């Protein structure tokens, strides 16, 4: 993967009022010196030129936007800059077909927003250093020009930060989505099975609270995701009473994101280039399961269930009128029980940790797929515990599905994301009786235990909405690993100390 692109901060070193064939303008969150930073570059044809007002905004006294009158008025604070600007902008008056695009921020009604104006004529008031443009305010999607958008976390000096136009607030954009996200989560909660309703509602409330809070504005998707304490509410079915709790479970850390988008609205392929680089930072999940079983389960009728939980909307970002990106985390728990006989409480804990130097590029255009490197996640196992002997086979897994979906110039485009199936845990137990004592002890009862753990990480891109009639057009496995432990438990203290070797 290539290094990050130059976002053009150096081009802000001096005011620039000259018309050009392409220009770049910076967007940022407007808070702090370390935040999300994006560079939008727009190119024009032979009879069109372009300029961004934020390149010389500090030389202006006033900006007056009158879109209904098709008039834009700029007043300068000194004669020298005014004269130089007039000399350059007079180009538009020489030919009737000539126009230039001015990217304008600072209009009274939307001071925080950049909007394109197509300028067709300029008149001058030399006495007051004022330029009056005849022009039309446009939507970004109305311009057939080619755009590229590059975004990443960035730190920039205070003097550069002071000159950046304050027009991109990702937390503000997410707040606009908060109510929709809450309603979607509540709808899922209502549709959930009775045993997971309480947990689903809790996740919906957590999502709403997270969206309403001010947060770190670095371009880092925060992955502090709660997990319901009850996965399966204790119930009786086919002679077996079974329940699953997850104590102090959840995910923490974040994912740094940077990316590149090329937009060509005049072509058939409106978004010929779009990729996102994702880099985990301190990402881990802690899973502490308690499986409570009692009774007998016929081996010919295994108990299997996959339980989806409401999606957790995560803080996204948007450049108004140009692009919106919204990450969502989906979560599922899978449970399978086979030939159970006995009564016990099984406790097992696993931490899933992702290394910080892992990287994945998600290409979100057809014909290109993803590439990954340096993925080496690991599992940290806690010794399992049983409080009494039991026969049975138990399988459980968690599936974390991070999707990033976008719309560009009001066009919905494919989504992409990561899937992390971790941990995958298998437990096979067999209660035994040994006359001579189990495990070199005086205890006669023992439990033979086979335990396995696994990780499966993948990346994909798809058409449609995630989880709703989506159509994958590429899918790749990034990392997979399985481990097994063999040993015995004995009931003298039921501390759950595993005896044996890893293989």
Order of helices and strands: EEEEEHEEEEHHHEEEEEEEEEEEEEEEEE
Secondary structure tally: strands: 26
Strand-residue fraction? over 45%
The biggest sheet, with number of strands, parallel, antiparallel or mixed sense and barrel status, is: 20 strands, antiparallel
Low-pLDDT runs of 5+ residues are 1-13, 30-34, 156-182, 191-218, 492-503
Pfam family, one: DUF7223
Keywords: Coiled coil
Domain DUF7029: 45-147
Biased composition (Basic and acidic residues): 1-17
Task: Please give the structural blueprint.
Blueprint: E1 22-28, E2 34-43, E3 48-52, E4 60-66, E5 71-76, H1 79-89, E6 99-104, E7 115-125, E8 130-137, E9 146-155, H2 158-163, H3 170-191, H4 197-212, E10 220-222, E11 225-226, E12 230-237, E13 240-246, E14 250-264, E15 273-296, E16 303-313, E17 317-319, E18 323-353, E19 359-363, E20 371-373, E21 378-381, E22 385-386, E23 390-408, E24 411-433, E25 445-465, E26 468-489
Parallel strand pairs: 3-6
Antiparallel strand pairs: 1-2, 2-9, 4-5, 5-8, 6-7, 7-8, 9-14, 10-14, 11-14, 12-13, 13-15, 14-15, 15-18, 15-19, 16-18, 17-18, 18-21, 18-22, 18-23, 19-20, 23-24, 24-25, 25-26
Helix pairs in contact: 3-4
């Amino acid at each position: 993967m290539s290094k990050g692109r130059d976002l053009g901060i150096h081009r802000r070193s001096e005011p620039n009022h000259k018309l050009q064939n392409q220009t770049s303008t910076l967007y940022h969150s407007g808070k702090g010196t370390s935040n999300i930073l994006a560079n939008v570059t727009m190119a024009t044809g032979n009879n069109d030129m372009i300029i961004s007002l934020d390149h010389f905004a500090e030389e202006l006294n006033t900006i007056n936007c009158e879109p209904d009158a098709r008039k834009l008025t700029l007043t300068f604070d000194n004669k020298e800059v005014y004269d130089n600007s007039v000399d350059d902008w007079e180009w538009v008056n020489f030919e009737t077909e000539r126009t230039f695009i001015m990217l304008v921020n600072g209009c009274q009604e939307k001071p925080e927003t950049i909007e394109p104006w197509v300028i067709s004529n300029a008149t001058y008031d030399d006495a007051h250093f004022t330029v009056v443009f005849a022009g039309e305010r446009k939507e970004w999607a109305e311009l057939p020009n080619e755009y590229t958008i590059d975004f990443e976390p960035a730190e920039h000096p205070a003097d550069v930060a002071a000159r950046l136009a304050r027009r991109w607030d990702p937390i503000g954009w997410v707040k606009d989505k908060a109510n929709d996200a809450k309603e979607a989560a509540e709808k899922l909660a209502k549709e959930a099975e009775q045993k997971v309703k309480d947990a689903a509602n809790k996740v919906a409330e957590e999502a709403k609270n997270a969206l309403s809070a001010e947060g770190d504005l670095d371009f880092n998707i925060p992955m502090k995701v709660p997990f319901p304490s009850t996965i399966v509410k204790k119930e009786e079915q086919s002679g077996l009473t079974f329940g699953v709790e997850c104590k102090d479970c959840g995910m923490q850390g974040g994912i740094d994101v940077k990316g590149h988008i090329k937009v060509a609205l005049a072509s058939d392929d409106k978004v010929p280039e779009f990729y996102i680089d994702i880099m985990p930072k301190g990402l881990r999940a802690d899973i502490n399961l308690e499986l409570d079983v009692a009774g007998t389960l016929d081996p010919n009728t295994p108990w299997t269930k996959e339980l989806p939980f409401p999606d957790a909307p995560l803080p996204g970002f948007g450049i108004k009128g140009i692009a919106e990106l919204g990450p969502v985390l989906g979560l599922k728990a899978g449970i399978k029980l086979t030939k159970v006989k006995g009564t016990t409480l099984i406790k097992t804990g696993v931490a899933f940790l992702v290394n910080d130097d892992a990287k994945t590029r998600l290409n979100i255009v057809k014909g290109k797929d993803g590439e990954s490197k340096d993925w080496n996640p690991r599992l940290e196992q806690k010794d399992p515990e049983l409080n009494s002997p039991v026969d049975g086979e138990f399988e459980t897994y968690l599936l974390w599905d991070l999707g990033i979906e976008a719309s560009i110039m009001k066009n919905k485009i494919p989504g992409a994301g990561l899937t992390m199936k971790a941990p995958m845990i298998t437990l096979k137990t067999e209660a035994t009786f040994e006359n001579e004592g189990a495990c070199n002890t005086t205890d006669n009862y023992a439990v033979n235990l086979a335990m396995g753990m696994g990780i499966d990480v993948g990346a994909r891109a798809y058409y449609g909405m995630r989880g709703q009639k989506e159509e994958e057009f590429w899918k790749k496995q990034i990392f997979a690993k399985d481990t097994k432990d063999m040993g015995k438990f004995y009931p003298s203290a039921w501390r759950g100390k595993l005896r044996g070797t890893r293989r």
